[in-house]
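This part of the workshop introduces the protein records we will be handling. An example says more than a description, so a record of this kind follows:
>
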Amino acid sequence: MMKLGGLGRKSAAAAGKESHGSRIFFAVAGSAITPLMSLATAPILAQFLGVSGRGELAAGTAPMLFAVAVGTLGMPEALTFYIAKQARGARRAVLRAFGILTVLGAIAGILVALGAPVLADGNTEVEQLIMTTAVLTIPTFWAAIPNSVLAGTHAWKRSAVMDLVLSVFRLVLLSALAVSGHLVPLTATFVMLGLPLVKGFMTLPHLVGYLRGTGNVTAKRVRLLNYGSRLWVGSLAGVMLLRLDQLLMIPLAGPAQLGLYAVAVSLGEVPAALAGAVRNVVFSSDAESSPDRDDTHRLQQTARLTSAAAGLVSIGIASVLPWAIPMFFGASFGDAISVAWVILAAVTLGTAGSVAGAGLSARGRPGLRSWGMVVGAIANTAVLFMTVPALGAMGAALSTLVGNVVAGTMNILWLRTHFGMGFRGFYGLRSQDFQLVLQTLARTTGKKKVHAFSN
């Protein structure tokens, strides 16, 4: 007879039957939904808010997003790692993480509020937006916990369904606000930052089922702060790569340049989400198993395929921008075309290194990944301050390109140095790569039974 932990055991068993390719398929499908919907919502925001209004929206949300990425001290990633490991005490660590994130969220919210006058640079609209987002900081920290449980238990299909529902709702809500004349930076802020919190509530049944499940079986003890602190340096560097430009654009170049840059970044979110989804699957899957030769081959193959996919998506988006941006965003956003091309190149060239970084963390070496990102962040920041005052949005895009390439290359060099992985194995495509794609598609669609090396 099944005991009260049936849900947890069944979930784990189901996850175990899924291939690595199937996990990636559902993770990518779920993660791609949000940026694809962003392509639909971005023109709405651009046309109804204008260049300056779009910049104010980005400036208002950037401090809170910066604080969330930095202030969690790596707790969400650490929780995912130990849940995937089925470590002793992982279930109790969920409650411990809740307490830690509550304290950290309160501190981060206060710092966001205190920094509002400086970051707004005298813009009262931006200052009001920043103060508003400070209130949402603690709930956003809390929402990381159920998302970590989803990732740690490999519930990618469930996550994809929730992402689809919320993305459609966001599109409908923004459209309704635009039609009714109520779409302004403040209302857009509530929609953009408030809806992701809903996913946390939608995930509560899965979270409760996990907490009621049977005890974890491995002897590995949970040390959230130890593991998370080693990730924190990398998180800080990663935020500098992803958020520092938007955080400083108003003081350095003004809201109009930030508006152009925000549109370009939203277009780059599609291939970036693809890489991010694969990175999450690699992290939880590799953490679940002990790395061996097959895992090394799998990591390199995943990096190659993800880079190729990101490149194809980027080329497709880049090819239509010259007519798509003036048509859907307006002629005032024409300068965002070349900026978006650089952002797309940055995402594509950094994808292999991003997947490699997940492999480092899953192999218990998050500190190496962190130091690689530190080097990338230093390069990013140097280029940012040198180019943004003169080039505006294009300068920010160039700093992102440099930072992504440097950080990604460092991750691959660490894997080569400490785990003997060949540098060339992360680039290019092989015949077995195409075979794996066909096998995964066949298994997912149920057309025929195949056997993939990564089961």
Notes: Residues 20-71 form the longest helix (52 residues). Confidence is low (pLDDT under 50) at residues 1-17, 449-455. Strands lie at 87-88, 218-221.
